From TrEMBL:
Keywords: ATP-binding, Cell membrane, Endoplasmic reticulum, Endosome, Lipid transport, Magnesium, Membrane, Metal-binding, Nucleotide-binding, Phosphoprotein, Translocase, Transmembrane, Transmembrane helix, Transport. It comes from Salarias fasciatus (Jewelled blenny). InterPro entries: ATPase_P-typ_cyto_dom_N, ATPase_P-typ_P_site, ATPase_P-typ_TM_dom_sf, ATPase_P-typ_transduc_dom_A_sf, ATPase_P-type_domA, HAD-like_sf, HAD_sf, P-type_ATPase_IV. Residues 841-1088 form the P-type ATPase C-terminal domain. Residues 48-102 form the P-type ATPase N-terminal domain. This is Phospholipid-transporting ATPase. It is a multi-pass membrane protein. The chain crosses the membrane at residues 75-93, 296-319, 350-369, 905-925, 955-977, 992-1011, 1023-1044, 1064-1086. GO terms for cellular component: early endosome; endoplasmic reticulum membrane; plasma membrane; recycling endosome. One of its GO terms (biological process) is phospholipid translocation. It comes from the Eukaryota. GO terms for molecular function: ATP binding; ATP hydrolysis activity; ATPase-coupled intramembrane lipid transporter activity; magnesium ion binding. The keyword Transcription does not apply. Residues 135-275 form the P-type ATPase A domain.
Length: 1138
């Protein structure tokens, strides 16, 4: 019986499959799910399909692959790989230095990085386990069983209670609500914090134990808003019932159940196949421009290293070619050395010199940079100015690798709604048949409830009562708003009109509340019936037949929608009565919505109903089929009126935009709103001034000329290019607002349709030319407004600017799911913790509560981060050049014998212990200008723009400074050793004493150089700077004062103590340190300050940072001559320094 059933099942499946191949639907890309793992029909054999489990894996490593995988990733970095090669050369070839000298620093760098990455991955494992081990309720054979989330299988029926998160993607089968709906919030997925309504599958059994059904649906894909499937419900002695499944039936993993006691659903996608998991895979790794500079500088120093090794190798054989030099009487060659191939010996000598000079490459710089970025990011998180008491949260850092990019931003792309504005909608007024209706008094709104202070007033005349009621009924019925359930205590104390509402869009709630104030109250939706309370306090009941959902393509929901979507579908004589009010409201900055109606005959409804049912059952091309039916229904309508809803500006939005423009940053507004509304917001934010000439490139301007659109587009681009680019004076330091009368400010406006023509012209040559003209025009405008933008177009705009000439640093900021694409595309992505949820925050590099915090994030934190890390990079190359140059010069005096100048302990500890902590503390705590000054003077941001401190000019200055110090260290000590009998007893100093003196001068000089550069002194700076010098002295005494049994030869035994017993050595050490730092001290003393706040690092080479000396000596002297002028009240009005 089983075999026969199996054959029947397989043959029926093959027949269905072959039949489908001939039709328009193919099931190759679909899956079949058995609800409750029961075969359907019951007499067929059940072969359970194989799907992935419900485990979520966001970690990179496991216990078994951590070591090999992490080492592989670390040695892909060129510096680490280089030092690995050097270490292997030291092990294999007889080199002058021990393998420990390069092996220990490499081991330190690899270990610290591995610990950091291992810790971060452990946190990911911990987060995964919290999700995977979370208990869930599964219904099996009529029993409720507790399971771990990771053990859920596709086909399991789950029970989820209120405020719980869905553990996988579910099809809703049953709800505790009477109307078979449930409410969810998807803030963690799509960024929308409003409640969404989902519906159960019709005709499912109340007793799920007796439900026999299969689900056919598409394979997993990441689009959160798309789902296509159908459910076959099998009942005894009846034909299977087929029900369509769409996004309204799908409950996504990560969403939370709200306002519903419990639901039951069947798992369709689990684990890494859920839409949430698919959306968080493949996020690209962003790299900062500083890393590119480091790699370029590294290449230069690598060339210097190879050049030094080549020079020494050549000179060695030139010197040995002289008679008696190759094999002196005191150092005869062994037979093995005589038999060695000449070229092999030259190659090994070259490698030996490479090993000897390899410390010029600062491998420890990478780990210091990593630690600086990681620890420095906490200062953003800890900043109390970023704390918002409304949401009780502060700033968030998701990516610490981009801290310095915050100080290099050239373009800011910002969303409008929720970013520049508050996304707090309030109904302002409406227009019915051309008559304006407005309130006498503003209404108060608290916690989603509405109270009216006064009656509605009519301006001039008003429409007829029948038209008014038709308009208000449309507002009460055409939406997806639900009435929030309240407790009995709340219901007894709260009036009917003060109920709370739940909706997926704040606009819908504002419209329903507006209708309430005019006398029409929406009472709620119960079992497909909508109830409203009219002006006469009579309850009207309507049956909900279908919902023609709003989407950004149609921009309408049946009879309500944007003016650009509704006007073409109504009679033009009706449009003229409403257009004036819509344009006026948009100019005032309000969000407008048009309202229409249409009478459907029984035949028309039957045809639409059939079309909708057929389209919703389709597995392939369902959206296109639904769109065709929607367009058929939404034509031939009659226009009633329009509404105006206000979305107020964010706190300090105008001041923030003005500060960004003052800093030389170009601001572009990318929004999906209509042009008039967005333009009004730009004026309110001071992006556009009253004297700004607006260059408009929209569909309206393209149709004005009466010619083909593409011809008109080309003509306008050339006209605007001549006006804004060719005839404009050259801009210096970025496009900023012009305060003089002679120079004209330009603002540019473009809409989505015209942008598509610019980016996707009919010919490739035209498209490239249009892009160039468009970019040049925009780059010469003080602000750019892109309206009617789709999310993909926002990302295209950012990508186009990012890849333009000069590769400017871009920043995108937004608060909603529609901003994620441009946030991911920009160099730096900022998420606003607003009312649109956390999708933008989760995909951003940094998150801030309000737009106003962007000012401090860029102008203060970004400025300081860049200066700190730029100084760190230049200082590392400088101190390593000082370190190795004397070693190179020493070869000219030791017969190119590869004799090391420094002891192996000094070679190993120089970058790890003696000089690492002071620069790390500097790069974390330095404030060359206090934050208040940086915020008050936005122009200071321009001085470090375009990577000013990591250009070739400053790099050459630091390199020459390193060469100067290296020469002074070596030849200064050599001058001392012209008479090497430096001790009182006439004992002669040896070569290790020579190297130790050079190394002592080196350590003290590079550390005190950093002290001179430090402007902001804390106890930590004092501790690490003076502590590092004290540790060097202590280590030298300790290392040379004990006989270490594990050392075959102890070169520094009592060398340091003997060196310090010589007064001459003391004098030379102090003198050389002073001579090394004297030029900079003199420059600081005699350099003319640039204004009262002249503390910043200049971008032009050489960038001499203000010194510690000026802090100690100069400022007290200046303060003596400081004069403050005060007004009669004693208030300080001016502060001048003579």
């Amino acid at each position: 019986k089983f075999r026969l059933s199996l054959i029947t099942n397989v043959s029926s499946f093959l027949c269905r499959f072959l039949l489908q191949l001939g039709g328009d639907e193919r099931r190759v890309d679909s899956r079949t799910i058995y609800v409750g793992h029961r075969s359907c029909p019951a007499n067929e054999a059940f072969i359970p399909p194989k799907f992935c489990d419900n485990r979520i894996v966001s970690s990179k490593y496991t216990v078994w692959n951590f070591l090999p995988k992490n080492l592989f990733e670390q040695f892909r970095r060129i510096a680490n790989f280089y030092f690995l090669i050097i270490f292997l050369v030291q092990v294999i070839v007889d080199t002058p230095t021990s393998p420990v000298t390069s092996g220990l620093p490499l081991f330190f760098v690899i270990t610290v990085t591995a610990i950091k990455q291992g810790y971060e991955d452990w946190l990911r494992h911990k987060a995964d386990n919290e999700v995977n081990k979370c208990p869930v309720t599964v219904l099996e054979d009529g029993r409720r069983m507790q399971k771990e989330s990771e053990k859920i299988k596709v086909g399991d029926v789950l029970e989820v209670e209120e405020d719980e998160t869905f553990p996988c993607d579910l099809i809703l089968l049953q709800s505790s609500r009477d109307d078979d709906t449930c409410f969810v919030t998807t803030a963690s997925l799509d960024g929308e914090s409003n409640h969404k309504t989902h519906y159960t599958v019709p005709d499912t059994e109340k007793d799920l134990e007796s439900l026999n059904a299969t689900i056919e649906c598409e394979q997993p894909q990441p689009d959160l808003y798309k789902f296509v499937g159908r459910m076959h419900i099998y009942k005894s002695n009846q034909e299977p019932a087929v029900r369509s499944l769409g996004p309204e039936n799908l409950l996504l993993k990560g969403a939370t159940l709200k306002n519903t006691q419990k639901i039951c659903g069947v798992a369709v996608y689990t684990g890494m196949e859920t839409k949430m998991a698919l959306n968080y895979q493949g996020k690209s790794q962003k790299r900062s421009a500083v890393e590119k500079s480091i790699n370029a500088f590294l290449l230069v120093y690598l060339c210097i290293l190879v050049s030094k090794a080549l020079v020494c190798t050549v000179l060695k054989y030139v010197w040995q070619s002289k008679p008696g030099q190759d094999e002196p009487w005191y150092n005869e060659k062994t037979q093995r050395e005589k038999d060695t191939n000449m070229y092999l010996k030259m190659f090994t000598d070259f490698l030996s010199f490479m090993v000897l000079f390899n410390f010029i490459i600062p491998v420890s710089m990478y780990v210091t940079v990593e630690m600086q970025k990681f620890l420095g990011s906490f200062f953003i998180t800890w900043d109390k100015d970023f704390y918002d008491p409304e949401i009780e949260e502060g700033a968030l850092v998701n990516t610490s690798d981009l801290n310095e990019e915050l100080g290099q931003v050239e373009y800011v792309f910002t969303d409008k709604t929720g970013t520049l504005t508050q996304n707090n909608m309030e109904f302002i007024e409406c227009c019915i048949d051309g008559f304006q209706y407005k309130y006498r008094d503003a209404s108060s709104e608290l916690d989603g409830f509405c109270a009216t202070d006064g009656p509605v007033s009519k301006l001039q005349q008003k429409a007829g009562r029948e038209r008014e009621e038709l308009f208000l009924r449309a507002l009460c019925l055409c939406h997806t708003v639900q009435v929030k359930e309240s407790t009995e205590q709340d219901a007894s104390h709260r009036p009917q009109e003060q109920r709370g509402f739940i909706a997926s869009s704040p606009d819908e709630v504002a419209l329903v509340k507006g209708a309430m104030r005019y006398g029409f109250t929406f009472l709620g939706l119960e079992s497909k019936t909508m109830k409203i309370l009219n002006r006469s306090n009579d309850v009207e009941i309507y049956e909900l037949l279908h919902v023609l959902n709003f989407d950004p393509v149609r921009r309408r929901m049946s009879i309500t929608g944007a003016d650009s979507s509704i006007f073409p579908r109504v009679r033009q004589e009706e449009v003229e009565r409403i257009r004036l009010h819509v344009e006026r409201n948009a100019t005032e900055g309000y969000r407008t919505l048009c309202v229409a109606y249409k009478h459907l005959s029984a035949e028309e409804y039957a045809q639409a109903d059939e079309g909708l049912k057929e389209a919703r059952l389709a597995l392939q091309d369902r959206e296109e089929k639904l769109m065709a039916v929607y367009n058929q229904v939404e034509t031939g309508m009659s226009l009633i009126g329009a509404t105006a809803v206000e979305d107020r500006l964010q706190e300090e939005a105008a001041e923030t935009m003005e500060a960004l423009q003052g800093a030389g940053i170009n601001v572009w507004v990318l929004t999906g709103d209509k042009m008039e509304t967005a333009k009004s917001t730009c004026y309110a934010c001071r992006l556009f001034q009253r004297n700004t000439e607006l260059l408009e490139l929209t569909v309206r301007t393209l149709e004005d000329g009466g010619r083909r659109r593409e011809e008109r587009l080309h003509e306008l681009l050339l006209e605007y290019h001549k006006k804004a680019v060719q005839d404009a004076p050259p801009a210096k330091g970025g496009v900023t607002r012009s305060w003089s009368v002679a120079n004209q400010d330009y603002g540019f406006i473009i809409d989505g349709a015209t942008l598509s023509m610019v980016l996707n012209s009919s010919t490739e040559s035209n498209s490239s030319r249009y892009k160039n003209l468009f970019l040049q025009i925009c780059q010469n405008c003080t602000a750019v407004l892109c309206c009617r933008m789709a999310p993909l177009q926002k990302a295209q705009i950012v990508k186009m600017v990012k890849n333009s000439k000069g590769s400017p640093i871009t920043l995108s900021i937004g608060d909603g799911a529609n901003d994620v694409s441009m946030i991911l595309e920009a160099h730096v992505g900022i998420g606003i913790k607003g009312k649109e949820g956390r999708q933008a925050v989760r995909n951003s590099d940094y998150a801030i509560p309000k737009l106003k915090h962007l000012k401090k994030l860029l102008l203060a934190h970004g400025h300081l981060y860049y200066v700190r890390i730029a100084h760190l990079v230049q200082y590392f190359f400088y101190k390593n050049l000082c370190f190795i140059l004397p070693q190179f010069l020493y070869q000219f005096f030791c017969g190119y014998s590869q004799q090391p100048l420094y002891d192996a302990a000094y070679l190993t500890m120089y970058n790890i212990c003696f000089t690492s902590m002071p620069i790390l503390a500097y790069s974390l705590l330095e404030q060359h200008i206090c934050m208040e000054v940086l915020l008050d003077n936005a122009t200071l941001y321009r001085e470090i723009a375009k990577n000013a401190m990591l250009r070739w000019g400053p790099f050459l200055y630091w390199t020459l400074l390193g060469v100067f110090h290296g020469l002074l260290f070596f030849f200064g000590v050599r001058f001392l050793f012209s008479n090497s009998a430096l001790q009182d007893n006439g004992q002669v100093f040896g070569n290790w004493s020579y190297g130790t003196i050079v190394f002592t001068v080196l350590v003290f000089t590079v550390t005190l150089k950093l002290a001179l550069d430090t402007r902001h002194w804390t106890w930590i700076n004092h501790f690490v700077i003076w502590g590092s010098l004290a540790f060097y002295v202590f280590f030298s005494f300790f290392w040379g004062g004990i006989i270490w049994p594990f050392l075959r030869q102890q070169r520094l035994y009592f060398v340091f103590a003997n060196m310090l017993s010589s007064v001459t050595a003391w004098l030379v050490i102090i003198l050389l340190i002073v001579l090394s730092l004297l030029p900079e001290i003199l420059l600081v003393v005699f350099r003319k300050p640039r204004g009262p706040h002249a503390r910043q690092v200049g971008p032009s080479p050489p960038p001499f940072p203000p010194s510690f000396l000026s802090n100690v000596f100069l400022e007290p002297l200046l303060n003596i001559f400081q004069c403050r002028l005060k007004d009669l009240d004693g208030d300080e009005v001016e502060n001048k320094k003579f």
